[in-house]
Amino acid sequence: MNLPNILTIIRIFMVFPIVLLMDVNPLASGLLFILAIFTDYLDGEIARKYNKVSDLGKFLDPLADKILVLGILTYFVWLRYFSPWIVILILFREFMITGLRLSLVQRGIILPALKSGKLKTLFQDISILFYLWNLPFKYLLLIISLILTLYSGFYYFYKYGKKIF
Fold first, then answer.
1. Which entry of 52, 66, 89, 107 is 20 to 30 Å from 140 by CA?
2. In whole angstroms, how far apart are CA 86 and each of 82, 105, 146?
3. Is the dihedral of CA 145, 146, 149, 155 positive or negative?
């Protein structure tokens, strides 16, 4: 266990206080979400700078991101902020990319984070903040993040799918 992996595990457990604070203190909830996003950046920087990249970290980091984003989006659906089909499509993409990643690993290929995936994550994070703080254009940002989510999923399969089929 190293510091980057500890930060990743902390990010997973930050979902609970973020969700619990949503109704009580949306500002604090959003600030905790920003802190969680920062731990994602920080764990990667520390791992690369101090040569602490591990197989556990490669597995946990994307899992932590999915738990954080999908946990919050699922709670938003429960609050009826938007239709469940949005989260279902995002879940579908995440499961498909996870399956692709696992298939590639069996062939000794590591699926890198592509720019389209990073852009997807950025828009998902921004739209979550807009929902947490009830800012205008939150639904538009969510739809943009959904489009980017689906696009990046298709792009990953276009670029790497031929290596497993």
1. 66
2. 8, 29, 7
3. negative
| CA atoms of 26 and 14, how far apart (whole Å) | 15
- CA 94 – CA 45 distance, rounded (Å): 24
Q: How far apart are CA 163 and CA 140, in angstroms?
A: 35
Q: What is the pTM of this model?
A: 0.92
**Among positive and negative, which fits the CA dihedral 158, 109, 145, 89?**
positive
- pLDDT at residue 165 above 80? no
Q: Long-range CB contacts (< 8 A, 24+ apart) of 64-69?
A: 64/8, 64/9, 64/11, 64/12, 64/40, 65/11, 65/40, 65/121, 66/94, 66/98, 67/12, 67/15, 68/11, 68/12, 68/14, 68/15, 68/18, 68/36, 69/121, 69/124, 69/125, 69/128
The string of pLDDT tens digits covering residues 95-112 is 999 899 889 988 988 888
Do the beta carbons of residue 4 and residue 46 sit within 8 Å?
yes
User: How far is it, in rounded angstroms, from Cα 156 to Cα 76?
Assistant: 27
Q: What is the spatial distance between Cα 29 and Cα 86, in angstroms, rounded to a whole number? A: 22
Mean pLDDT of 148-155: 96
